[in-house]
Amino acid sequence: MKSKKFLIGSVILSLSLLPTVANAWSGTVDYWSDISGLSYTWGSNLQGSSLSKTAFQQAVSDWNSTPTRVYFTYNSSSFTEFNTECITDSSEYGYTQVYSLDLDPQYFKSFLNVCKSDFSQTNIARSVANHELGHGLTLYDDNFTSPTAIMNQNRNRTNVYVPGSDDILGINTKYPIN
Amino acid sequence: MKKAFLASTLVLTPALLFGCSSSNVAVEKTSAGQKLTVTSHADIPVYADLAKLTSDADAVVIGTVSNIEGSRNLARDPNNPAKEDPNILIEGVDYRVHVQEYIKGAGTKSLLITETKQKRMGKDAPMVSEEGYMELESGSTYVFFVKKSPTSGRYYGVGQPFIFEVTEGQVQAKGKNPEWTKPFKPKDLTTFIEDVKSHS
């Protein structure tokens, strides 16, 4: 009887000590079947060279360099598309829409807002492109857990422009290496 | 083959049933009976303290909403921002606000504040509600942290949260996402104004 009470008390105590912070990957229910072969193509506004295209190329390279299973490859017939948009009267730096069938992601579309006033400042486009690809990988926003997380909307976009340890932990938690 | 399947299920048979569910997610049913979910995420500045929120804003105003002046497409042609984007709709709602006080900045006694309400990323794409959109009530008073648009002359939110409701002398951050409002505890209006001024 005493040991049963002890056990129940231990379980309650353990649960109360669990971290209450919501990380970028907690609570997400959508999973790619394979993140090691995600294809992408360029949208209509990124056919030539531009700051935005370079930012996406850097982001692809940044994510591909992480110690995760993530690997993006170019394929002109891919449904996943990287593009730019001009949104006025908005504080948005960029956005991503993920299209899923029965919670299985099929493709995503990411946009950078070239009309944001500080968009061309150092590293900002790269920071936003990495954030948007993180959403494409099914990570969510993670605002106050880690200041160096690319999924943190409260980050300093000039200083934080590549995936951080929290983002990598998120990917490896959702998609274990082995 | 896979591409043809996707085209038939996602593009050629759009929006059969269901309609929208929660904000920033649209759910529809395809002709094949599968559930199509479109989840939208925006990278916007999110603030954790009043000091940064104030310093990033062009103006901080106390004002009362009178009416919705209209809505318009905030998506512009990247090559000519004077024109609307022909394919994408990003609906912005303009609220007419009568200003009681500029806590930071200066301007007219009446202004338009724009909020992004919903997005449709192609002519056949589903409309997805904006997570940050807060419907404002006519006659209600708010504190707004805003930037001034160099193109339209209207004002828009500096990030999240940017709307604080004033009720019976108390100021409280508004937002559908509790993570955005959590860092801002309710305060009495006088203290709130003093705090904003100290960061201006």
Question: What can you see in these coordinates?
Answer:
The complex is a heterodimer of chains A (178) and B (200). Chain A is an alpha/beta fold. Chain A is built from 4 helices and 5 strands. In chain A, strands 2-1-3-5-4 form a 5-stranded mixed beta sheet, with helices on one face. In chain A, α2 (51-64) packs across α3 (124-136). The longest helix of chain A has 16 residues, at 2-17. Chain A is globular. Chain A starts with a helix and ends with a helix. Chain B is globular, with a radius of gyration of 19 Å. In chain B, strands 3-6-7-10-9 form a 5-stranded mixed β-barrel. The model of chain B is unreliable at 1-22 (pLDDT under 50). Chain B is of the alpha+beta class. Chain B is built from 4 helices and 13 strands. Chain B has helices spanning 2-11, 50-56, 178-181, 189-199; strands at 25-29, 35-43, 59-73, 75-77, 80-84, 89-104, 110-120, 127-129, 141-148, 155-157, 163-167, 170-173, 187-188. The chains are: A alpha/beta (178), B alpha+beta (200). The A-B interface holds A 22, 30, 45, 77, 79, 84-103, 106-107, 109, 114-115, 117, 128, 131-132, 135, 140-141, 143-144, 153-154 and B 3, 6, 9-10, 30, 34-48, 74-78, 81, 85, 88, 90, 92, 114, 116, 119, 121, 128, 147, 149-152, 154, 156-160, 179-180, 183. β4 (94-101) of chain A pairs antiparallel with β2 (35-43) of chain B.
Summarize this structure briefly:
The complex is a heterodimer of chains A (178) and B (200). In chain A, 30% of the residues lie in helices and 19% in strands. Chain A has four helices and five strands, in the order H-E-H-E-E-E-E-H-H.
Q: What is the spatial order of strands in the main beta sheet of chain A?
A: 2-1-3-5-4
Radius of gyration of chain B: 19 Å
Unreliable stretches of chain B: 1-22
Unreliable residue stretches of chain A: 11-22
| SS content category of chain A | alpha/beta
Main sheet of chain B?
5 strands, mixed, barrel
Order of helices and strands of chain B: HEEHEEEEEEEEEEHEH
C-alpha end-to-end distance of chain B: 59 Å
Q: Strands across the major sheet of chain B, in which order?
A: 3-6-7-10-9
Distance between the termini of chain A: 42 Å
Q: Report the strand count of chain A.
A: 5
Separate helix tally of chain A? 4
Look at the helices and sheets of chain B and give the structural class. alpha+beta
Report the strand count of chain B: 13
Mean pLDDT of chain A: 87
Order of helices and strands of chain A: HEHEEEEHH
Oligomer: heterodimer
Strand content of chain B: 35-45%
Please compute the radius of gyration of chain A using only Cα atoms: 19 Å
- Please indicate the percent range of residues of chain A in DSSP E strands (runs of 2 or more): 15-25%
